[in-house]
Amino acid sequence: MLENWLKTTILMAAIVALFGMVGAALGGAGGMMIALVLAGAMNVHAYWFSDKAVLKMYGAQEVTSDNLQFRSYYQMVRQLAENAQLPMPKVYVINESQPNAFATGRNPEHAAVAATVGIMQILDARELRGVMAHELAHVKNRDTLTSTISATVAGAIASIAQFGMMFGGGRNEQGERNMNPIVGLLVMLLAPLAASLIQMAISRAREFEADKAGAAISGDPRALASALQKIHHYAHQVTNQTAEAHPETAQMMIINPLSGVSFDRLFSTHPSTEERVSRLMAMADRY
């Protein structure tokens, strides 16, 4: 657990340092503040209201304790929340054939978990329990906050780069350019890419941590490993139209829901399923 948190901390420091260097070079102090405020405003709004927005986007239906069809699913989440010492989150079902699940909400007191009908059809109760424990681990680890901060800084870096392209980069008190124009152009082009790579690495680190913490919550790493293998196999055979229309939500899911995700791992929001399964199986003997 400490290893994943340390990696996340280092990556967060790296993206903030990148923001400082790029901002000083291209935007100056004023440009840095404008970019950070704009990106921050957009992402704070997303952080505060994203749960309602994404649940509505996916047509999620809330499940309560008196729902006969999904009572066992609701009770499963309740038990896992107690195991994790979390407040009971709101529980949702999504009428979607692709097997997947996600957690959302700005903090544990305003959290929600959702699972698709598809995931309930392909997983047994033990495997589904492993998946929902993973999602509650995201809630416990406040990963929505972590992703919001990284998105804010990455967005600010992109804004500074655009600012530099439009206005020629920052200048010093004498009106001279802060750096060589060719170097400045390279920074404008490469800085947003570097920020995106760091942001994706943070997302992958948080997935590994949620796997590990989820296995501790459920006490059954093998169940989550089996679930991940099944979801990976079926998810890419079924197109999730909502995810395709809103690819920014893909990082929320337990498995990347987008079709054609054969790009380099550096650009992926999720670690490879094989590595996730391998790590979980290595934990299995402890339980």
TrEMBL record:
GO molecular function: metalloendopeptidase activity; zinc ion binding
Key words of the record: Cell membrane, Hydrolase, Membrane, Metal-binding, Metalloprotease, Protease, Transmembrane, Transmembrane helix, Zinc
Main location, first listed in the record: membrane
InterPro entries: HtpX_protease, Pept_M48_protease_HtpX, Peptidase_M48
GO annotation (BP), single: proteolysis
Any one Gene Ontology cellular component term annotated for this protein: plasma membrane
Name of this chain's protein: Protease HtpX homolog
Protein encoded by which gene: htpX
